[in-house]
Amino acid sequence: MASLAERLGHGPDAKLLIVNCDDLGSSASANRATAECLAAGTATSATLMVPCPWALDGVAKGKAGGIGVHLTLTCEYPTYRWRALTGAASLHDATGHMPATTREVWAQAELADVRAECRAQIEQALAWGVDITHLDTHMGVMQLEPRFFEVYLDLAAEYRLPLRMAGAKAEAQIGFPGRAAAEERGVVFPDHLTSVSLENARPGRTFEVLVAGLKPGVTEVYFHPVEDGPELRAYDLEQPDGRVADHRTLTDPTLPARIAAAGATLIDFAPLRALQRDD
Q1: Structure pTM?
Q2: Tens of pLDDT, residues 184-203
Q3: Any idea which architecture 4-278 has in CATH?
Q4: Which superkingdom heads the taxonomic lineage of this protein's source (predicted)?
Q5: What are 199-214's pLDDT values in tens digits?
Q6: Residue 138: pLDDT band by 50, 70, 90 thresholds?
């Protein structure tokens, strides 16, 4: 059976790399940083948090790359909050905003409300003119729990969009066969998923090391770049330095050449979407 790389028109040993900027739309600083990363020629894709206040600006800032929808059911910052588009009670906490943690969502959200909210986020992005390339999910809410994953997969099949999917090793830890289920539904996803996002200061956990060790096939690497400044420091009280480091990593002018020297080819999700829609 042909590999994903071969189905995309590449050789069996090709190393294809999608570099995605998560959290587009979460803030003006995230939008500016993502735009810079896309312009630098390293980031190839971004995913939009539709319920966030800066989402429409994010659409404009992300146009240099493919834009997916970062399905959002959580709001992790203590003083910077947002609400579900649909207003469903089960999707909000006691303050009237989306819950801070995935476990809160899994414990209280009604699946019908989840499905309606995720569909509303996709439809809003389409109404804004976004040519959606794929779906993924904020804080892994839709990926990591089987009931929610079923909704995630249904939407990918309905809208004929590729998915971010846990890698094979991670899936074994998650405990349910999401990759096989996606294959059965004809949903396309990268072979590998990894990240050094928010960890750039850790020894051995650098993007350059990651790229040097890429396996053949399609790998998605995700980052969370944000421009440093008062806005970021006001809302992210736990990991601002990691977001700044992500921005710095992806705007290094020497990085595209070093990726090419490692034998990797940068792509976005659009070829995967075309493959899924042609099958």
Answers
A1: 0.96
A2: 999 999 999 999 988 655 55
A3: Alpha-Beta Barrel (3.20)
A4: Bacteria
A5: 655 556 788 889 999 9
A6: very high
Identify the three-state secondary structure at position 108.
helix
How far is it, in rounded angstroms, from Cα 271 to Cα 90?
36
CA dist., res. 247 & res. 34, Å (int): 8
Could you tell me the residue ranges of all domains in the chain?
4-278
Average pLDDT over residues 127-150: 98
Rounded CA gap, 102 and 75, in Å?
A: 9
Q: How far apart, in whole angstroms, are the C-alpha atoms of residue 78 and residue 68?
A: 26
Contacts for 248 with CB less than 8 Å, ≥ 6 apart: 200
CA atoms within 13 A on the CB side of 182: 29
Strand intervals (E) in 129-206: 135-137, 192-194
Residues with a catalytic annotation lie at: 22, 224
Residue 30 tokens read as 């995230």
Average pLDDT, the chain: 95
